[in-house]
Amino acid sequence: MRFARRCEGVTGMTDRTHKFEVGQTVDLIQSTSRPAASGHYEILSLRPAEGGSPQYRIKSKSESHERVVTENDLILSTHRNFDG
Predict the structure, then answer these.
(1) According to the model, what pLDDT value does residue 68 have?
(2) 39: domain range?
(3) How many CB atoms are closer than 10 A to CB 58?
(4) pLDDT per residue over 28-80, tens digit each?
(5) Are 74 and 83 in contact (CB under 8 A)?
């Protein structure tokens, strides 16, 4: 069993429970109930599942704060890296 990188108090989570990996570039699905910057986000860490959906800590270059979102709120970005 392959283990994901250790991240702020969350250990032992495998990549089998998370669709995305730390360092991957994703897009946040826009929602009227959650204002957010458009553009690309970087996966900073994997978080435990809540309500059956794995969670992620993400960061956009255009925002000063980080966000915790569920996997259902993310799609794989067409950009290969966060800088591009």
Answers:
(1) 96
(2) 1-84
(3) 24
(4) 998 888 888 888 999 999 999 988 899 999 999 999 999 999 999 999 998 76
(5) no
Give the residue-averaged pLDDT of 2-27: 68
Which residue type sits at 13? Answer: M
Distance of CA 38 to the CA centre of its chain: 15
How far is it, in rounded angstroms, from Cα 2 to Cα 69?
Answer: 23
**Separation between Cα atoms, residue 41 and residue 59, nearest integer Å:** 5
Which domain CATH number covers 14?
2.30.30.390
Distances (CA, A) of 12 to 24, 39, 60: 19, 30, 26
User: What does the CA dihedral 1, 51, 38, 40 come to, rounded to 10 degrees?
Assistant: 0
Q: Rounded CA gap, 23 and 42, in Å?
A: 6
